[in-house]
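From the pipeline queue, job 12 of 40. The input is one protein chain; the requested action is below.

Action: predict structure.
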Amino acid sequence: MPQTVTEGARTGAVDAAPAQASKRWWILAIIGIAQLMVVLDATIVNIALPSAQADLGFSDGNRQWIVTAYSLAFASLLLLGGRIADLFGRKTAFLIGVSGFAAASVLGGASTSFGMLVTARALQGVFGALLAPAALSLLNTTFTEAKDRAKAFSVFGAIAGAGGALGLLLGGVLTDALDWRWTLYVNIIFAIIAFAGGWVLLNNHRDAANSKLDLPGTLLVSSGLFALVYGFSNAETHDWSSPATWGFLAAGGVLLTAFARWQMRAKHPLLPLRVLLDRNRAASFIAILITGAGMFGVFLFLTYYLQLNLGFSPTKTGVSFLPMMAALMVMAQVSTTILVPRVGPKVVIPAGFAIAAAAMVWLTGIDVGSSFSTAVLPQLILIGVGLGIVMPPAMSLATSGIAAEDAGVASATVNTMQQVGGSIGTALLNTLAASAAASYLAGKNPADKLVQAQSTIESYTTAFWWSAGFFAAGSVITFLLYRSGKLEQNVNDAAAPVVHM
């Protein structure tokens, strides 16, 4: 009889394994949809801004706040959101984040004034800061076996990398076909699917339930990140010498330094230093920061070039980024499932940065009369290849081997790096591009349309050169920081990478 019971139990375990594996992939689908919703909103509203401005009647100077309100709230609250997921449960954080994001989107779509729209965008950032780290930490704790983890992170990384381009496409289609308000209302569809799936499939783990929230650390890092992002945002509309720029940047630096010192002696630190001190993890965080900074040179200035210089419609502009998205998604699979496991990150990720840098240099060849098929398309595909090699494995390595109670805050750090990198990149590239255009116009007739057009080309190519510089620096830094050798899984801890020299 005992033998029969044992055999039955074994049979039941075998039967349950495929069901459990199937559930994991459904969880990946739900997490991917939620992540796509958050990433889309960083760019989907951009194309709709002129229509929203005409409808609500706000000034050009106020227009940037539709974008900035989202990034300020999102970046400054991400670490808090990640820790809340660890303390109170990832399912709870995920579901509140999804539903809150959807409600804020409805508020934004129904806006009757500039203030109402800015408030809605800020609320999207608040709930996005709760949702994004919960989603990534759920992925990290759901997929612990090496092969499945690589596949899962290749999908997640592709969404994170290509979501911005997809946002441009979807924003253009919705604005052209319906109305700018649908760039916000569309989130309801994503949210319903993500909420229903999350409610059924997710378990509410509280791996840091015995810890307490680090309130001093929360205040320091939230205010520090707010000041940093706000300072870089002001650089777009103010001079770098303005107190509104350097004052906030200096304050952000002081606050973040104070935060780092506090984390060394806090009993329940918001961001335990053990999360940052691993070399591979630190290299991955830097890779994500640099990728966020450089990517805006692609999305922002190519969008300007395609619409203002080549005369593309919003929809056609979005479609133009599809080849880049396809290349990124293909290379996301190749890099995480084949290249990094066989060669290791020290070779693969710097090589991806080098490819992206070369593509950006090639892109500086655009001119007023350039053809999209020869002067833009091949370069876009190559950028997609480079970023696909870098982003997914960097995201996986940034959260690999992390203790379960730190999964939320480590995931939040990934999102913070990407968001702060984007803010820095946008401010720097906008400022440098504007200076290049002004320098070109000096001593020339600004009323001449050809001169005007050439000045915009000068601004775009300057931004592309700097993006190439960001990626080249990323190649050098990651080559120096990543450990040599390939990564293998430790049989005692499926989430922990072991480096073989």
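Job complete. The longest strand covers residues 493-499.
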